[in-house]
Amino acid sequence: MRKMYDFKYLVNLRYEWIYMDYQIQYKKYEEGDFDTFFELVQRDEVMKYVTGKGLTEAEARAKFDSDLLVNKGHPSLGYFLVIDGNTGAVMGDAKLEFNKRDPQYFEVGYLLKEAYWGQGLGTKVCAAMLELAAQIDPTRDIIGIIDPENGASKRLLEKFGFTSYFIGIEDDLPTEKLILKK
């Protein structure tokens, strides 16, 4: 069993990070987590506002391998499993990374399984990623990228002070970008 660390005190475990925020735990993805990742991203409903549909196993493997490279590139940034601290069940995933198009910005994101929608967990997960961003670099602006049809995610980001600055098509997908200025 891995030791859990309080979210406010980050401890580097050779690219394996675990954060605790109340009953939610955040663990950086590692190679052995592919099956868990695939179980999440193959779901059409979960991926509706990300890619428009669930990923095939080959698409998921390519995405997962890319996420692992991000995780290895910085000791604190990356892609995380979101885990129920009471049951150990995987609720979804979250990310805090340098924006790929413009690395002067952080990018925040999350996915939750359908069973966890509408319970305020998106707010907790986003708050945890924003807290992590503030600990790493409190002066860096943060971007959230959503599907313009995803009203719930837009309201969540706006609750944290994000404002919209782009609506259009990017990578052949409908895209809205919001920014939190620091």
Automatic annotation (TrEMBL):
Domain N-acetyltransferase: 24-182
Domain of life: Bacteria
Any single Pfam family the record assigns to this protein: Acetyltransf_3
MF-aspect GO terms: acyltransferase activity, transferring groups other than amino-acyl groups
Keyword Iron-sulfur: no
Keywords assigned by UniProt, alphabetized: Transferase
PANTHER family hit by this protein: GNAT FAMILY, PUTATIVE (AFU_ORTHOLOGUE AFUA_3G00765)-RELATED-RELATED, N-ACETYLTRANSFERASE DOMAIN-CONTAINING PROTEIN
Name of this chain's protein: Ribosomal-protein-alanine N-acetyltransferase
